[in-house]
Amino acid sequence: MKVVVITGGIGSGKSSVCAYLEKAYGWPVYEADAKVKQLYVTHPSLLTDIENTLGLSLRDEAGDFKPSLLASVIFNDRDALIKVEDLVFPVLSEDFEHWKSQHSDRDFVILESATILEKPQLKGMGDVTVLIDAPLQLRQQRASLRDGVSAEMISRRMDTQTLMNDISSGKVESPAQYTVINDGTYDDLTQNIDNLVKKLL
């Protein structure tokens, strides 16, 4: 089994690529960002550990996890973000290994992660890394339209993805083995992905 990491900044189109690979080629997708949101609720101690580390409650009056409270902290406090990640990533890695074991009959599986290139805690989780990229302004426009929030809000989220922004702006070269530029139509994107799959096979 080979683990293909699909990564990219906010609004790059990585989720569209993963959906296409799953539909067209049958490659199972582990969506790390979505899985983390589940683990806050399903893991027996993760949320409590985060609350104790940050020194505040992240639950509503009914005692249920309130993601917006956590987001308001980590998107405005880099030290808090690092502390949360140090708790989350080991749990995520363990969950991913369990998920892989359930797909041991597959030749390829996909790990979708927006931050894997920037986080040393996640190093080594994949066999090959594919970066989906687009110009910064285009990524911002896509994300703003998709999420129905202001460009300013998207900009603050993008600020946490320093490496992705530097790659998109041409300041640094991508450390990924493959890069797919998604600045055209959906058909252009799928054609590029088909060409990539031929190389991976």
Walkthrough of the structure:
By secondary structure, this protein is α/β, with parallel strands linked by helices. The protein has helices at 14-25, 32-42, 46-54, 67-74, 78-101, 136-147, 151-158, 162-168, 186-200, and strands spanning 2-7, 29-31, 108-112, 128-133, 178-181. A 5-stranded parallel beta sheet has the order 2-3-1-4-5, sandwiched between helices. α2 packs across α5 (78-101) and α3 packs antiparallel against α5 (78-101). It is globular. The N and C termini lie close together (12 Å).
Defining key terms:
five-stranded parallel β-sheet; 201 residues; globular; alpha/beta
How much of the sequence is in beta strands?
5-15%
Number of helices: 9
Stretches where pLDDT is under 50 for at least 5 consecutive residues are none
Structural class: alpha/beta
Termini separation: 12 Å
Instruction: Please state the oligomeric state of the protein chains shown.
Output: single chain
Write down the overall mean pLDDT.
90
Radius of gyration, in Å, reads: 17 Å
Percentage of helical residues?
40-55%
Largest sheet: number of strands, sense, barrel closure: 5 strands, parallel
Overall form: globular
* Order of the strands making up the biggest sheet: 2-3-1-4-5
N-to-C series of helices and strands: EHEHHHHEEHHHEH
The total count of strands amounts to 5
